[in-house]
Write a structure and sequence with these properties.
Length: 229
Amino acid sequence: MDSIKILIVEDEQKIADTLKLGLSENGFQVEVAYSGDVGWQLFQKHSFNLVVLDINLPGMNGYELCKNIRAADTHIPIIMLTALTALNNKIEGYDTGADDYIVKPFEFRELLMKIRVLLKRTVSTVSPLDTILRVADLELNLDSKEVKRGNVAINLTAKEFQLLEYLLRNKNKVLSRADIAINVWDIDFNTNTNVIDVYINYLRNKVDKPFQQKLIQTQVGVGYILKAN
């Protein structure tokens, strides 16, 4: 993995340096920034395959940095590594473009596992035939990142887009919360969290509520299914 470059943005030097050592020992090339501003400068100057960042950073905070990185690169995996545990913090992290959210203190093995899972995802390519996903009058364009129902454009956050893409790729199939957690958030399902239900509700408000035909349906006690009828 010596060709895989990871950017760590963490203001606690001991944590940052420990992560750099651990990831380097696992074959990754690692750059470290101790502030959001320096992290953004490094990201603009160099090519990275994945970013690990804290939220409470001097200068540009992690939310702002994540938003900037996601605007510049829609595909690069971003992991937030933070002591902030509130659900609202997690939702804001995902809304700004994070792919995963790990709470401190954490096990290095868990971070390493999630890094490897995210990198595997980015290596896979999509066939040109699959660049537009459809069900009924709902259409998602993977190239332009546009979503619409009929002629009505729908604006989604990065995480809402990923969730809808997963539902579309598995249309007519009942998906459990665990399925969604693993494939959209790359996390083990925690029965005490309602993040998935919150995001399904966000998606329904944009994709279903303004339209007569409802596509996202609940299978009580099982999960969710996207289908035309």
